[in-house]
Design a protein that fits this description.
Length: 453
């Protein structure tokens, strides 16, 4: 696919980069965070007692937009191609983890920073070998090769050094395996390691690794730990601050995308809230360390979110705020309750008063799911047999149908869309990211700062 030409202005700025190059870069990616998500969060967090709609941290920092298409004719990118563009300044095919069409590695921003003697880090609420963080750390022909990608985190070096000095997220399933214990190898190489939130707070020096879940972290809406991304971001910045030559930190709000795929609006707003709090941490860091540049964007939009549906001129945030868990967790709790407990439990979990016909529809879906799943689900839903997974998905869809209906939330897809994504920035070079650009231009500007050191 032809590349849209956005780079004339950027080329004119190149001679100025060496003079203006920041010491530190914080690069935040809201996976799946299209512009409608920012609008939704604004209304979601608004104080209904005031006449004006309160602005958000997203509104405060929003300076531009970016196109996201991959290097093929699909127009719609996946997270791997999107992250490859954001990490390397070069487009590739859907599924690629920082490799080109010939499967040759594309040098990533973190690798360039490491070669300059900078410290580097990644933070994610997914497993750290998932598409976006992996594209900053590893090289593989396909994003689903999770074990190979995890191996690359140890095996791939820059001048004999690990690509990242700090890695926080999930993924013990891939890093502690029967065939290879990568955590042990990291520890042998001098990494401090945490596998729980209490130990995360005790990490005191680099290099540091924290794997806090078998795969991805629990959703913010279901997590017993409040604001997990904010917590990890705070700790990451604390550990990276002493770096004499500066640092590059990539922070991903991974599960905004997962909520979008699920068409789960309450889930999405909880993830947007945690991401917003992490952004506030990063902005405060820039304010106290003005030699730092903060850039925030998304790899793509997920779900085709719309605020207002069914021909109704309204979007009901009170309904969304009343939902206590993600749809799968609500489904689990309903499955584990007796029939006479369901009406009260539904009201407690969602706050939605269903009509008789709607409740009958939900009850039928629950009964059908119980026939397949039984009354008790395993703690980890990742490895459910296919028939059980489908039964849970069907019940979850029935739950979301009512939440979306009563909140008037619309979705056009369970996958990604090609809509342009927001670009937010804070720091002395903020203006460099204003206006319309391609995702590769964002990476080119940031890599330009690093190369100018």
């Amino acid at each position: 696919m032809k590349k849209i030409v956005f780079s004339t202005l950027f080329a004119a700025m190149l001679p100025q980069l060496a003079e203006a190059a920041p010491k530190n870069i914080i690069y935040m990616i809201g996976d799946g965070m299209g512009p409608a998500y920012l609008s939704a969060y604004r209304y979601y967090q608004d104080n209904p007692a005031t006449k004006a709609v309160e602005s958000t941290i997203y509104d405060e920092l929003w300076v531009g937009v970016a196109s996201t298409y991959p290097d093929d004719d699909t127009i719609v990118t996946d997270s791997a191609a999107g992250a490859t563009a954001l990490a390397t300044r070069i487009k590739s095919y859907n599924g690629a983890i920082s490799v080109n069409h010939q499967h040759q590695p594309l040098t990533t921003m973190l690798e360039i920073a490491k070669a300059k003697g900078m410290h580097t880090g990644i933070v994610a609420t997914s497993q750290i070998n998932h598409a976006t963080p992996a594209s900053f750390m590893a090289h593989n022909e396909h994003r689903k090769n999770y074990n190979e990608i995890a191996n690359d985190f140890v095996d791939s070096k820059v001048a004999g050094k690990f690509v990242a000095d700090l890695m926080f997220g999930g993924g013990t399933k891939y890093f502690i395996r029967d065939d290879r214990n990568l955590v042990a190898e990291f520890k042998q190489a001098g990494f401090s390691y945490a596998d729980n939130w209490q130990d995360l707070t005790k990490l005191s020096k680099l290099p540091a690794l924290a794997l806090l879940a078998p795969v991805g972290l629990p959703s913010s809406l279901d997590n017993s730990v409040a604001n997990p991304l904010q917590t990890m971001t705070e700790k990451a910045l604390q550990l990276l601050t002493p770096s004499e030559k500066g640092f590059v930190l990539m922070v991903e709000g991974s599960q905004i995308d997962w909520c979008g795929h699920a068409n789960d609006i309450a889930c999405a707003m909880a993830e947007m809230d945690d991401f917003a709090k992490a952004i506030r941490v990063a902005k405060a860091y820039v304010d106290s360390h003005p030699d730092t540049m903060l850039v925030i964007t998304a790899d793509h939009e997920t779900g085709g979110l719309s605020l207002g549906s069914d021909g109704v001129y309204a979007w009901n945030t009170a309904v969304i705020k009343g939902v206590k868990h993600t749809a799968p967790q609500i489904s689990r709790l309903l499955l584990e309750s007796s029939a006479n407990e369901v009406p009260k439990l539904w009201a407690t979990l969602t706050g939605i008063q269903l009509t008789t016909a709607e409740f009958a529809e939900l009850t039928l879906a629950l009964q059908q799911a119980k026939k397949v799943l039984g009354a008790k689900l395993p703690a980890d839903l990742e490895d459910l047999p296919k028939t059980q997974e489908q039964a849970l998905d069907t019940l979850s869809a029935a739950v979301k149908k009512q939440i979306n209906h009563y909140s008037k939330t619309g979705w056009t897809s369970g996958a990604h869309t090609a809509i342009d994504v927001p670009v937010l920035a804070w720091g002395k070079q903020r203006v460099d990211f204003a206006g319309f650009q391609d995702n590769t231009d964002i990476a080119a500007k940031l890599i330009g700062f690093i190369e100018a050191k």
